[in-house]
Design brief:
This protein is α/β, with parallel strands linked by helices. The chain contains 11 helices and 14 strands. It has a 6-stranded mixed β-sheet with strand order 6-7-8-3-9-10, with helices on both faces. α4 (about 90-100) packs across α5 (about 105-120).
Length: about 290
């Protein structure tokens, strides 16, 4: 199973939102990192055919998805970033409606809806109208509808936005359990969610792919790019002007800073033993 992007490009007038993207996705979870405007949502909207491409191809097992049409949509599950609902529907009704749209047989749909409501912790509020749901509850309904029909390609745009830490861990672990036999693309600003479950990390900046690798290799690549050093609060503004500053924290009653880059201060100590994907993000993608 392969999902291949060949010179995929999207332009809006003179603005290039996605610039000749080339990548092949196979089974596993791909975390997609990038700031707002990096092209993450543009790529996902092209993959789901919500917008038309300017140039290039998207191939699923060697055939363009535009040619496959409904045959590709049958194996596709999509959770958009923007929440859009019939707010007078309940979760139960909404999922049943989505199952009908996906032409899932009634018996199969009923079984899947029961399972997905339980996993997303919505069983007890299944008959509550969506308009009365919190933002986090709405996110969980969106995730549930994306998984109806047992899709082979799952595209998740900010799946844990608005969830509390306990719910995030629950959903994250569930997404991880789905990876066998599927291609899962997961874009999020919550770096820890990507770091803990992704097989590969795709980094994007200004419509271009900056790089792709495993979380371990990416973290190792910044081993000599991160230092921690004490910084009195009155010097913090100057430090931020001179260096790319990550966390500011307290240690033994002093204010310390974490700085990332090629040009680091002479003082301080390398943070080799506790590097994270956040350091990778700031080094490769931070302005």
């Amino acid at each position: 199973m392969q999902l291949e992007l060949k010179n995929l490009t999207k332009r809006y007038g003179c603005f290039t939102a996605l610039d000749r993207m080339n990548i092949t996705f196979t089974e596993g979870i791909y975390g997609i990192l990038g700031a707002n405007g990096a092209g993450k949502s543009t790529m996902m909207n092209l993959l789901t055919d919500n917008i038309s491409r300017t140039d290039g191809q998207i191939l699923f097992d060697g055939t363009d998805i535009l040619k496959l049409g409904k045959d590709f949509r049958r194996v596709l599950g999509y959770m958009p970033q923007q929440q859009g609902y019939y707010e007078q529907m309940t979760a139960q009704t909404f999922l049943s409606y989505m199952a009908d749209l996906k032409a899932i047989p009634k018996k199969q749909a009923k079984e899947e809806i029961e399972k997905l409501l339980a996993i997303t912790n919505l069983s007890n509020v299944r008959h509550k109208k969506l308009g009365a749901y919190s933002g986090g509850m709405k996110q969980r309904v969106l995730l549930a509808q994306a998984l109806l029909g047992n899709p082979k390609v799952v595209i998740l745009d900010e799946p844990t936005a608005g969830l509390d830490p306990k719910e995030r861990i629950r959903i994250r672990n569930f997404i991880s359990s789905l990876s066998r036999g599927r291609i899962i693309l997961l874009a999020t600003h919550i770096v820890s969610d990507i770091e803990s479950i992704s097989d590969q990390i795709l980094m994007m900046k200004k419509g271009n792919m900056v790089g792709i690798d495993t979380p371990v290799n990416l973290v190792e690549s910044v081993a000599d790019k991160v230092k921690e050093l004490p910084c009195p609060p009155e010097n913090l503004e100057l430090m931020q002007k001179q260096y790319k500053v990550g966390n500011v924290f307290q240690r033994r009653g002093e204010t310390w800073v974490r700085v990332i880059g090629d040009d680091l201060p002479d003082e301080g100590q390398y943070a080799e033993d506790h590097l994270t994907l956040e350091d990778v993000y700031l080094y490769y993608l931070g302005e």
